[in-house]
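Input/output pair, single chain:
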Amino acid sequence: MASAATVVVLVGSLRKDSLNRKVANAVIALNTTPLKFEFAEFGHLPLYNQDLDGDNPPSAWVTFRQQIRSVDAALFVTPEYNRSVPGALKNALDVASRPYGKSSWDGKPVAVISVSPGAIGAFGANHHLRQSFVFLNMPAMQQPEAYIGGAADLFDADGKLKNETTRDFLSKFVQSFATWIEANRKR
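Output:
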């Protein structure tokens, strides 16, 4: 049997009371698979600028790239900003994909959950991320797709998931992701 896979979780919303972080925490709490989750924080990363990426890149970039390189897979949980992903999340993708030819993302199985208080569940951000995954050579889990709409009504005052239908869906999602990782991870 293979060892437990480590999954880095990137939450696109940086705000303190983020619905996206609540969904990420719910996924982790519902996990009954042999996956290990760790968060990658990226709000502090300097904007990617190739001029800074020489012999002495910013230490925050180096640390972030090492974290991404050290894991087996990635889970993105993101809101939608202007039919795309938040700028800080896009910057994290860029930082870990550079320098060209040395992407820390290469070959990592990935899944995405998009979260919104609105009805369409951040559909645009979900699919925009998937475009990047293709270029970054990250096999993206196709099913089940995860668009979580109406997210503001899914949690209690303590930030715990109270919606049974969403709980069941996220449980199945994380089990499907574990299967996807096992079938696609580098050894």
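The first helix runs from residue 19 to 30. The first strand starts at residue 6 and ends at 11.
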